[in-house]
């Protein structure tokens, strides 16, 4: 398989008036097409910063990001992003939110409609196509967020704690939904979370990060096919191993 | 506290859940309160018995006379005064809107524009709109002069609300648009502009209220040209026709309620249409 997303020596220093914060230091990672990689690390370690750098929303202080072989600079529709805060457009209907990216690239109305239908169905929101955003529950909102990003057919999907604002039960449902979506679309996904359970349940590989500045502490292969049984001895053992290790490092998760 | 009969005739207690009940309740309270105001006025007018305070009946009669034949002091009919005021008011408002909204959007968007405009704005803002009136009226005449006073009154609240709106935009929405492939221009008119509309409407609402006060006041320092303010001043000063003055006051109140009422409603409709309540 080809290297679909390559991050080479990424670095980010935030400069404030009287201070410099090194958020990311020499971060390198290679992701294959169709892989789901979790970035797991304590809050404030720089996970969001890594995603925003890849998305091109902020400029790096060094290093390079390649998507399908092309070096990226600035935001682009080849890298979709899903936000913990949903970041939906409340003045647009669910359908119009999903069509947003297609509208930007000047795709004709009829085709937009067909494509939106496809993604509405994928996330199970056909009946809510014409609903307003404020009428939706948190889980439904994030379905719209995912559908909106996917409708652009990006090479890479960046998800920043997408289920972090949801209650535990909705979260579990959404994780399963995401697995179904992955099966259909075979997207390359970089998934930020601070939940060990979520990382083990979803990922092909888990990238465990250190405290700030974020560097890679360990990359863990999760070998079992999905869907996984959260309660199986293997899964439980891996969860415990990661938690122990994080604790040993005296690193607070959350 | 309020009890009334339903359509079916059965006795109903006040039910705060029911829209009809809430509407009838507030209608009853409003009518009672206004009736009390008129009654107090009437009793006061009869007891005091001074020319400065005519009875509501005399004001009512004056109103119809003013509609039919106009007044001696100005030689114009009431509706002509109203049209003259509204024309200046609408003109001043529109000019303010066309200038303040684009400027506010630019100031919210670009730091440099804001830093450049702020000193000018802060120097001009403390000057009460009415302080400009003599200058504007002498320099620009009795139509454009008061119009520019309205412009000043509407301009500042509209500007600051627009700037505030741009600054309040959720930065995640901008990020979302950019990751979906939006150019700067597309981000501006597909995200920033819609986000700002409710704030602009709030500025319009406040601006209309201030602008309406400005127009009546500004018209009072003109020697000619019609307008409700002009009408009030002349009837007081030239002929001492106090019933006519009261008609003028009531018209000012009434038109003010209508203009701000329309803006209030538009504001609410837009906010709910945009899913931003
Ligand atoms: N725009 C910024 N300016 C200055 N510091 C920032 C900025 N964005 C993030 N940081 C800092 O970088 C570090 C990493 O932040 P972030 O990537 O949001 O962490 P995480 O997503 O892992 O919780 C934090 O210490 C944060 O304070
Ligand atoms: Mg974060």
Mean pLDDT of chain A: 92
Shape type of chain B: flat
What is the overall pLDDT average of chain B? Answer: 92
Shape field of chain A: globular
Helix content of chain B: over 70%
Number of spatially distinct domains of chain A: 2
Gist?
Chain A is an alpha/beta fold and 254 residues long. Chain A has 8 helices and 10 strands. Chain A has a 6-stranded mixed sheet, with helices on both faces. A 4-stranded antiparallel sheet of chain A has the order 2-1-4-5, with helices on one face.
List the helices and strands and how they pair.
The complex is a heterodimer of chains A (254) and B (277).
Chain A: E1 3-15, E2 20-32, E3 36-40, H1 47-55, E4 62-67, E5 70-71, E6 79-82, H2 94-98, H3 100-104, H4 109-122, H5 138-151, E7 156-160, H6 168-185, E8 188-193, H7 196-202, E9 205-209, E10 216-221, H8 233-248
Parallel strand pairs in A: 3-8, 3-9, 6-7, 7-8
Antiparallel strand pairs in A: 1-2, 1-4, 4-5, 9-10
Helix pairs in contact in A: 4-5, 7-8
Chain B: E1 3-5, E2 11-13, H1 19-48, H2 56-68, H3 78-109, H4 111-124, H5 133-167, H6 171-179, H7 184-218, H8 228-237, H9 242-273
Antiparallel strand pairs in B: 1-2
